[in-house]
Amino acid sequence: MNPAVAIAAFAAVSLATAGIGFYGLRISRTTGDFYVASRTVRPWWNASAIGGEYLSAASFLGVAGLILLSGTDALWFPVGYTAGYLMLLLFVAAPLRRSGAYTIPDFTEARLDSRVVRSVTSVVVVIVGWLYIVPQLHGAALAIRITTGLPAWVGMVAVVVVVCVTVVAGGMRSITFVQAFQYWLKLTALAVPILFIVFVLADSGTPAVAEGSVNPTGAAPAGMYQNVSLLVALLFGTLGLPHVLVRFYTNPDGQSARRTTLIVLGLLSVFYLFPTAYGLIGRVFAPHLAQSGQADALVLLLPGELVGGMAGDLLSALVVAGAFGAFLSTTSGLVVSLAGVISQDLFGGSVQGFRRAAVISAVVPLGIASMTGSLALAGSVGMVFAFTASTICPVLLLGIWWRGLTDAGAIAGMVTGAVLCGGAMVAGAWLSPGGTPPWLAQPAAWTVPAAFAVMVMVSRATRGRVPRTITRLMTRLHTPERPLVTER
Amino acid sequence: MTRVRVTAPRSVRAGGITAGSATAGSVTAGSASQGGSAVTAARLAAASREAAEESDAGQVFVRSLIRSQLRLGVVVAAGFLLILAAFPLMLGLVPGLAESTIMGLPFDWVLLGAGIYPVVGLSAWLYIRTAARNESRYRDLVGDK
What we know:
The structure holds two protein chains of two kinds. By secondary structure, chain A is mostly helical. Helices cover 77% and strands 0% of the residues of chain A. Chain A has helices at 3-25, 31-36, 43-54, 57-70, 76-91, 93-99, 104-112, 115-148, 152-203, 224-237, 242-248, 254-285, 288-291, 298-306, 309-346, 351-371, 377-401, 407-430, 438-441, 444-461, 470-478. Residues 484-488 of chain A have low confidence and may be disordered. Chain B is 72% helix and 3% strand. Chain B contains four helices and two strands. Chain B has a two-stranded antiparallel sheet with strand order 1-2. The interface between A and B is large, with 68 and 66 residues.
């Protein structure tokens, strides 16, 4: 690929991102603006923004790469990423919006009336956020290396710098516009090239893609356990992701939080058709990418391979722009939510503190990413989902729906989930990648029930610690907002 | 049963919560302790509304709303997961189905890669409709307009 084209594409996306960020600066003034855009964002904007933020490197590059490698088994990834939002809608969206909290630690502190729970939740949220940013940076490193030939660290540093500038300049308000723009950019960047490819293939009289079952790597299909465990992680991991949750506070009320989620489901469903198409076409026409270990770069390389010439260059530029859109949007969404948590716990929630916290939350994962090697993108993001599902998901679900949850139970459950799932991740990384047994490679199927069980049992044993505010809180979480006559 | 309540100030909820959480980062409107007469007024009004909602009669309605929303969520989730599990089972049990093609595309890919999304959307739409209906029934019960 022509390096100049790729660099131009990256520069254009960064400029557009920063530009929208600065534009947003003019309308964000108060601390409330900075955190949650004052809860005045319309459902369509908000849904596009949620989609933009959620569709990360794993979705844009990783899903197609994994489908290229393992075929129909990998189709569970996009299904799980989407169905996770269904679970979010069913169990979390409206009550969480009605809680009025800004961040997950805010929610757990208010629900359980305990500063200790708040601190434990904050630590877990920050770990999840950092773990999730690392694959985004690995994606950026891969994209820069493949498309321009520059050293990999350039990509990581560029993403971190652009994100810091945008977040420090405008907070959530501008982030909402940036993210909404990024969703449509990502969709276009995947859709246009693949439609072009399909037309070119059809034009050249290539036989229809009936042999999707070709297997370029000869890898054995995943077992039943692995697929189920993966689905558990994705279904229950989504509803605990910090950057996803913070978006719900920008809805004006619980009912609009639900409507937003419905739109998000539509946007995700449309989006995931395209990585699937890349994976299927890649399996038939570019299986050598899987054999040479470049599966994650499939989306970036396919237009150039199959179209070629000037048109191929332009299409590649579009895909590169979309990929950087994905790295930037997810990273900035995570940085905003982490900065919200860190600044409220360490810097007293001021605007200045928020800016400082934003820089901290972007630079730490840069350090981690540059010290660790890149794995399959969709796989490493799947591990983060497993971790979230074993820690934050139980405390949210039980906190919203079960009056009996106590602070001691919440802490015990979160620690259990974190230790079990984190231990499995470390043990899996320590063993050679091929030698990891399935129950370590996909731990969610047993770590999530374990965390739930510990949380319930310890809460039962410490029944006297149920906070006295519980009646009022449950009422607030579940009753519809009164129709407002005047907006204050 | 007496319908005490809930005619109380309607803008209170939004005002109270924003005032409570913007500064302290705490959710409970009642627990934060900022001064300011507007905040105090809002808090008093909120307290009277909440007192009504926390009365025994009010709590019966609230608990029944929570139960019906939870039941709805569980039913929709279970239905969706059953359909999801049925897809691979169908592919595995019906011989030749996975090898057949639709418009030149392999059937198993079409089913898992595209066919599941309408099911997700439909479940979500059903849920939202019913959840809103539960809430408007609650509003009717507590005499809220």
